[in-house]
Amino acid sequence: METTLRLPADSAAEAPAVPAGQLVTVRVPATSANLGPGYDSLGLALSLHDTLTVETLDNGELEFELSGEGADSLPRDASHLVIRAVTDALERLGFRHRGLRITAENINPHGRGLGSSASAVVAAVTAANALVPEASQRGKDWILQLTSEMEGHPDNVAPAIFGGLALSWQDSDQYSSTRATVADSVIPVVAVPDFELSTEAARALLPASVGHHAAAMNSGRAALLIHALTTEPELLLPGTEDYLHQSYRAQAMPPSAELIAALRRAGHAAVVSGAGPTVLVLANGEAEARTIVDFIGSHTARNTPEVGWRVMKLAVDVEGAKVEVHRQ
Length: 328
Fold this sequence. Notes:
The protein is α+β, with helices and mostly antiparallel strands. Helix content is about 35%, strand content about 30%.
């Protein structure tokens, strides 16, 4: 469905406008953050991609075509996250637009803990950066900084930008991230339920502080998880044990919490994906991945028949956001 709107007068009219006819397409992966003990610091890029195309116009209009996830509910005006992020990024780069044609193909489920808002802002900021003249473009670290500010933390935007396993941290108001290579045998499996959970609602359930013992236990498991993901996947089950957030959030998503517990009892490295309610399972090899898919199907049919689950065997996306530019 396409919508055309007249944009309000541009408050940044003194800035140079990006010429009309510039066309950029960005393909950005879904992400899973936390991965158990890596709260607000670890994120994994997944082979589930949204595609955003941005074309500059000179008629003062906003044309928005949206398909896929969220097509029936998301706004198609200047309040949309993508429009706001493109406009903000252009202003940070010293430019403005005189109209935009946006085409968004959304595959990533919204409100499920797979980084849909992070994917949107990464795609938008990456597109804006590619639209301006090459001399004014900035690197991926700048994109990380701006998108982390927009999201409030870097754990989802970092893997969406860089791909692979992202290890991120913050010093004051500066965000940083480094990328690690995941072992070839690690296969992500996601079980996406048919109900949503907002990140804000999930965060509201967390305590203001945790005990020293829990923090120490969690830091040890987070360190083990990085080793398991990159070098020794046989340790994924103990490496994904969390002591900071999952138990507190369980009350907001009982079907997901129960599925995670059952998978872990069966020996599989299951965690909440991001804030939930999607369940992420890190399999070690194709055989375990197939077993996990079958286990989820039989377990949910028997225990939560009222919930619809979409189960997908994915791969780790190693490229991150990919840009295709067509200059006029």
